């Protein structure tokens, strides 16, 4: 059965001078300010679509890796994933970098790297973002 999640955005004014808010509707866990300067220059306490994508990707990848490790008999104690999404005004999103480390008793570094590579390919968010280069660093 499919699940559907919902977010909404309200934008006021022009792109350069305006601002907006994005709300996480399904979970009702927050509303976040957005602006062009936060997207194209410095965040200054305001989020951007790319930061939200980074959060989604880091979470989805961690879940996929956790599942893959457990399925192979090596459940993780802890996984630590960060994601960076590069945005170039006028071009768009140009690269995504995932960085992962973790504690997986009984699994060596090579096995962890193999599992991480499989999670990168299998993660639904990675699949949705496949038009952009995704670089994985394990360590």
Question: What report would you give on this structure?
Answer:
The structure is a single chain. By secondary structure, the protein is α+β, with helices and mostly antiparallel strands. It has four helices and six strands; from the N terminus they run βββααββααβ. The chain folds into two domains: 34 residues, no CATH class; 90 residues, GMP Synthetase, Chain A, domain 3 (2-Layer Sandwich), CATH 3.30.300. The strands form two sheets. Strands 1-2-3 form a three-stranded antiparallel beta sheet.
What topology, given as strand order, has the largest sheet?
1-2-3
Say what oligomer this is: single chain
Mean pLDDT: 97
Structural class: alpha+beta
CATH-scheme architecture of the largest domain: 2-Layer Sandwich
- Fraction of residues in helix: 25-40%
CATH fold title of the largest domain = GMP Synthetase, Chain A, domain 3
Globular, elongated, flat, extended or rod-shaped: what is the shape?
elongated
- Give the tally of β-strands: 6
